[in-house]
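A student in our group prepared the protein record below, which I am reviewing. Thanks in advance; the entry in question is below.
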Amino acid sequence: MDQLNWGIIGCGDVTEVKSGPAFNRIPHSTLVAVMRRDPEKAADYARRHNVPKWYTDADELINDPDVNAIYVATPPDSHADYAIRAMRAGKPVYVEKPMARNAAECESMNQVSQETGVPLFVAYYRRALPYFLKIKDLVDQKAIGDIRYIRVQLNWQPYAEEVGENPLPRWRVFPEISGGGHFHDLASHQFDFLEYVFGPLKEANGIARNQAGLYQADDIVVATFEFESGILGTGSWCYTVNREQRIDETQFIGSKGKITFSYFENYRIKIETETGIEEVTIPFPDHIQQPLLEMIVDELRGIGKSPSTGQTGARANSIMDQITARK
């Protein structure tokens, strides 16, 4: 496969800047079709992004002979269905994260990928971003010695649409659609990157509860986890604090120092050792998924390998299932 002609199923907000424009900025890659159930929104997206075709039916896009690769960018409740349909049609799939609602759905996707031999990739794009590759390199080079433990903290205030007299929360806090709440949406990125740096987790446990009652999903999660290497970790996620308590901070504590960074809030990496404190700033690219997409296009053309696959993507779901299981 020398030329990738992509079709997007679900051209919503995530595709406007983060991913959609990147397809046309990569050599041997073109966005040729999009699908959305609302015809006006589908046509509008195609017009604004200069996409030749648009559809309101996913099967029509999947079966379009001009489309030879599919990007599934719908909410997680339809990821497995669309990805499986596309793979059975012989077309490689790039699916948004989290990969599906739970580990069982991820397994079904990977089974079809194995049965058909059609590649499956997941949008865990931090595995290809220079900011996060710098963090991985610092760990690999033992800039802070041997890693002892990891601490993750994410506190966010409720979104505006989740509070007030007539709240209208978005799909991310409806477990039947997203698989969970904001934890599933955001912590999936965090655990995927942690396994990329430190290898597989051996065990993960946690408590997930709904304290504020703003929506059905859990709004607070605390967790402990252990890597097969013996590194330990703790994490806390709360999505109902006030703005002044907002924090996005992860720390890697080593035998000779500490690395502090943010997953979502800033571009600074702080390295503290006995020789002093160093801060490195590495901005994200305009289209944040482009570096990973470049690697996926290369793999599909027979050049190199993508660091994010269906097998690696399923791991994050498995970890979140373990942490949020009711006990």
